[in-house]
Design goal:
Elements (H helix, E strand, L loop, with lengths): L8 E4 L19 E4 L6 E4 L2 E4 L5 E3 L12 E2 L11 E3 L6 E2 L8 E3 L1 E4 L5 E2 L7 E3 L2 E3 L6 E2 L6 E4 L4 E5 L12 E2 L10
Parallel strand pairs: 1-2, 6-8, 7-10, 8-11, 9-12, 10-13, 16-17
Antiparallel strand pairs: 3-4, 4-5, 14-15, 15-16
């Protein structure tokens, strides 16, 4: 396990063909992530790892951010990356399961209109202080400034905030992990 380390830089060799979600989690000191240029499966850009075939962001860091053009944020891509805010670019369409798991205190989460799918427990273990869903998003909303993510079609509360939260009367169900790190 790389959990308690002072590792600051890593280079993925050319022969690596599989990087699982959550790879490199718990390495808060990691600031430089690179992939060997000869790797046929992955490439790196701005201290993040991407799949060549799909452009999916496989692993990011606090230093990488999420650049415009990324459409899919992979499972565990920012697992324990210690992000302070999550402002997704307008290009993001899919957030896979556990994509932002265990990011402790996240001051701001912004979901743009482009997001069509949020995977299971994408924000599990995050204390989200402020949640905003773009009003033009057809799949999700934060109606009545509730400070939560609600699946519009099913009226299901997907993720609650740890800030001021008001559950709208139109919510009919609550995701099992919606309050995973909320202090009540």
């Amino acid at each position: 396990s790389l959990t308690r380390t002072s590792l600051t830089s890593i280079t993925i060799p050319k022969n690596v063909t599989t990087i699982r979600g959550g790879a490199l989690a718990s390495i808060s000191t990691l600031t430089t992530i690179q992939v060997d240029e000869e790797n046929q499966t992955y490439y790196s850009q701005n201290n993040a790892i991407y799949e060549r075939a799909t452009g999916k962001l496989v692993r990011g860091s606090k230093a990488s951010g999420i650049p415009e053009g990324v459409e899919v944020i992979g499972s565990g891509a920012f697992d324990e990356a210690y992000l302070e805010s999550i402002i997704l670019p307008k290009s993001v369409k899919k957030i896979e399961s556990y994509a932002f798991r265990y990011n402790d205190i996240v001051k701001d989460l912004y979901i743009p209109a482009s997001v069509e799918e949020i995977g299971k427990d994408a924000f599990y273990g995050c204390r989200l202080l402020s949640i905003t869903v773009d009003p033009a998003n057809p799949k999700y909303d934060s109606r009545d400034n509730c400070n939560a993510i609600i699946e519009t079609k099913t009226n299901k509360l997907i993720q609650a905030s740890d800030g001021t939260l008001t559950i709208p009367s139109t919510v009919t169900s609550i995701n099992q992990q919606a309050f995973s790190l909320v202090t009540l």
